[in-house]
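Input/output pair, single chain:
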Amino acid sequence: MRRESYLSQPSAVEVYPVFSGTDVIMRKNIELVDKEDIQDGKKNKYKVWECEEVQFHYQGEVTQEEIESDFDYWYAKAEEVPDPSSVEDLSLEDARKAKYQEIASACEQTIYSGVDVSTSSGVEHFSLTEKDQLNLFGKKMQLLAGEEKLEYHEDGHPCKYFSAEDMQNIVNKAMFYVSYYTTYCNALNMWIKSVTKPGDLDQIKWGAKVPEEFQNEVLKDYMKAIASGGIA
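Output:
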């Protein structure tokens, strides 16, 4: 960002389509200010238009209307880029794709980090990577087969036997945890899909409350179970 002066009022946004993309000039805080200088010993008063300005080359097609409709987003991104001569991935679809990836990564990390479960030995922590989930599915099959003593291990601890009651509690808690966050992730993705301006994606973050219109019936049931003190 730099401070610029003009003799006539400049536009807030200018776009110039070129062969390799689009050259863009953006200005904010445009104001008419009084100036004064001295020429031949005489004071000369005049007015100029001053503003804060960014210029960048966008490697793609973008219209003046698109930028004006989401001015703060484009201006902030232009200030952040290390090389204004080569700016890319700022369109709605680019931003949407990046947000999908961000949410998917956060969901995976949350699930894989695991869950605390109260057992007869105390509170124990169990990771829930894909391999762990498969192992617990196997334990579920053992429980259905009537096993009363099942081998498993808490994170960072040696393998030991769990009673059927403890193992059932571990399986139930783990399945609820995975299903809840998978459903929550799906609701966030529906929210992302509805966005019409890239700047509006900034409010969508992992852990954010999902607006009512994007809360599917499954998520609502999970939220009710958590609120009532059920499995969480």
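The radius of gyration is 28 Å. Strands lie at 2-6, 13-18, 21-39, 42-58, 115-119, 122-126, 149-152, 160-163.
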